[in-house]
Amino acid sequence: MDDVYTEKHQVVYYEVDVSGKLSIPMILNLAILGSTNQSAALGMGNERIHANNVGWVVLQYDMQIDRRPKVDEVINIKTQAVEYNPFFAVRKFWLEGLDGEPLVTINSIFAMIDMQARKMIRIPQVMMDTYQAKRVKHITRIPDPQDITTTTTEPQGTNYHVRFFDIDHNHHVNNAHYFAWMQDPLGADFLKKYETKRVNIKYENEIRYGSEVVSYYKILPSVGGEVITLHQIKVDGQVMTEAEMYWQENQA
């Protein structure tokens, strides 16, 4: 598949967490690095699209983690623009070992916005032609995360302040920061005991500089050794992001 972009990457010390493995936020950062480099190679880099006052925003990720690579490990980052309709685009990402071992698979849905009006616009046809994506009437949807309010227990909340350095070049909070806000309240004991195996995260609204964020979570009862956590991020009572995460007890 010539439309699959691949680049090698060596995991470095500042990309791992206390376990010595590539952190969840950095998994996303490397995935976006791959798509950014592919776009630049095709002449559709940020400089060009931002010159037209437009930019890509992610709406949802569904991430399956088979194994997180360790520090100093060399991996392949792969990505492909799969399909699109006038307003939404589906992109896949893979992290693989050099021997082809599947490490992480991510399905994602993106949209394009007017950078000033912060409103969704039609995706220019020339962009999708460049990526060789398949035009469809209805894109392949990702199921919504489980609603945190569907269980009877009350969610726990932790407050965070959005700093200047949390903002990226699209002028909103970098998507990877949401994972830190969601996972940090679970506490060190939980995060050391359990390994993330799947994440489904949906971005409802942009979070901007100076906002006061409340990160809510629930830990559901373990079933067959698997634990599910539900997450919701709010600003001034408005839901900004929702997620569900699947965990297994750490064996290493």
UniProtKB/TrEMBL annotation:
CDD domains linked to this entry: 4HBT
Keywords from the named record: Fatty acid biosynthesis, Fatty acid metabolism, Hydrolase, Lipid biosynthesis, Lipid metabolism, Transit peptide
Segments crossing the lipid bilayer: none
InterPro entries named in the record: Acyl-ACP_TE_C, Acyl-ACP_thioesterase_NHD, FATA/B, HotDog_dom_sf
Residue stretches making up the Acyl-ACP thioesterase-like C-terminal domain: 152-249
Annotated ranges, domain Acyl-ACP thioesterase N-terminal hotdog: 3-131
Family according to the record: Belongs to the acyl-ACP thioesterase family.
Name the UniProt record assigns to this protein: Acyl-ACP thioesterase
